[in-house]
Amino acid sequence: MPRVFGLTLLTLALAAGTPGAVATSAAAELPLPATASDKAGMIPGQYIVTLKDTATDRQGEVDDAVSAAIERASTMGAVVHHAYHHALHGYAASMSARTAATLAKDPQVQSVQQDRRVRATAQSVPTGVNRVDADLSPTAAIDGVDKRVNADVAVIDTGIDLNHPDLNVNQSGGINCWSPYLKPFDMHGHGTHVAGTIGALDNGTGVVGVAPGVRLWPVQVLSPLGWGSTSSVLCGIDYVTRNADQIDVANMSLGGAGTDDGNCGRTNGDTMHQAICNSVARGVTYAVAAGNSHADAKNTVPAAYDEVITVSALADFDGKPGGLAQPTCRADQDDTFADFSNYGPDVDLIAPGVCIRSTYLAGGYATMSGTSMAAPHAAGGAALYRATHPTASPQTVKSALQNAGSLNWSWPSQDGDLVKERLLRVSSF
C-alpha cells in the first residue's frame, strides 16, 4: 500500500535543531569589499591622474596644486569628475588617449592610470563547499566568474525558486507531481536550499555551489508543507527516468520508513525501490540523505537502497579539518559525525550537513542543518564527475566519489557503527 512520507525533509532547524524544523528567514548577507576587475574591465576614455607629492603638507597649498592641475587638464579638453585632496593628490577625468599621454609627460604628474570598473561582491564559499574541496576542483573552477558546469541535476523535493538569481534553473524542464496544474515553484524553501548547495552560480554574489551553474531540474513531489506520498515520489522518479538521456544526477533529501529487500523491491513489493533501480539502470545517479534519527539507516528509504549514494552528515563549522571551530547555528562538535545523523552499512559517504548556508525563497539565503544538506554536496560531486565522464555509469560515479574521499575527520564521535565513512572530496574532479 502507498507509504506516506512526512518530510522529515531530513533537515534540522537553524539553531538548537528540532528534527523536521526548517529555517523561516534568510540569513543576512555580508558583503565583501569591492575589487577591481581585470584589464577587460577598463573604462574607455576615463583616467585617474595622480600628482607628485608636494614639498608642503599645508592643506591650502595642496588644494591649490590640485586645482591648478585640474585647470591645465581642462584646457586640454578633459572633463573632471572627481578631485582628490587627502588620500592622494589628483583627479579623475574623461579625456582622449592622446590627452592622457600628454599629461603623463607633465613633470608634476606621478601617473596616469586608466579607470576600471569595480563591483561590490558578496559571494561566499559556504563551509561545506570549502570542506569538500570544491573550490580546488578544476571543473568547478570557482573564481567568481560565471562559468557553468555542463551537467544536469534533478532536485526531487519541494520544487525550486524558479526566479532565484543565483540558480541556473531549467525553465523548460521540471514537473509538479504534487499539484500537476502548477509550476514546480518552491513555497517551502527546502528544495531551493538543496539546489543552491548543488549548483549555485559562481557569479560573485550570494553563495557558490559544489558544481556551479549546473542545469537544475525542479521535480516537486512534496507539498508546501513538506509532505508527500509514495505515489508523488514515484511520479518524480518516473519523470527523471523519462528524461534520463538529459539528467545525469538526482538528489533526494527526503525519506520514510522501509527496508532494502536486496532484490530491487521485487520481493517486498517496494515500488519506489523498483522505480529507482530502473532509473539507475537508465544511467541516473541518485544521491540521498541518510536520515536524521541517529539510527541505523537500514530502516529508512531510499537511504537503505544499495543502488543509491547514501550520505550522512558531518558537523563542520569552519570548512577545515582539525576540530578547532566553535559551534555556530547549533550545538555540536566541530569536524565530527553530526549528533543527529543516521549511520550504518548503508551509508556510502559523509558530507557537511550542519549550519550550511545556501539559496532560499524570494531570492534570499538561509542556513540549515540536516542530512538533507549533506546529500546535495554528493550530488554536486557526482555532477562534476559526470561533466568530465559523460558516459560513466551510476556505479562508476559512486565508486569514484568513494575512492576520492578522505578519512581526515574526527571519529568515532557520534557515529553509531564501527565504520568510518569517507568524507566527500572533489578536488580531483
List the topology elements.
Elements lengths: L3 E3 L25 E5 L5 E10 L7 H17 L3 E6 L5 E5 L2 H8 L4 E8 L1 E4 L5 H5 L20 E6 L17 E2 L13 H10 L15 E6 L6 E3 H13 L6 E4 L3 E2 L13 H11 L3 E5 L10 E2 L7 E7 L20 E2 L11 E4 L3 E4 L5 E4 L2 H18 L5 H11 L25
Parallel strand pairs: 8-10, 8-12, 9-10, 12-14, 14-16, 16-18
Antiparallel strand pairs: 1-11, 2-7, 3-5, 3-6, 4-5, 13-15, 16-17, 19-20
Helix pairs in contact: 4-7, 5-6, 7-8
For the record, the CATH architecture of the largest domain stands as 3-Layer(aba) Sandwich
Low-confidence runs of at least 5 consecutive residues: 1-8, 13-40
Give the biggest sheet.
8 strands, mixed
Distance between the termini: 42 Å
Give the helix level as a range of percent: 10-25%
Inertia-based shape: elongated
CATH C-level category of the largest domain:
Alpha Beta
CATH evolutionary superfamily of the largest domain: Peptidase S8/S53 domain
Oligomer: single chain
Kindly identify the CATH topology of the largest domain. Rossmann fold
Total beta-strand segments: 20
- How much beta, percentage-wise? 15-25%
The total domain count is 2
Mean pLDDT score, rounded? Answer: 87
Number of helical elements: 8
Helix and strand run? EEEHEEHEEHEEHEEHEEHEEEEEEEHH
The helix/strand class is alpha/beta
- Cα radius of gyration in angstroms: 27 Å
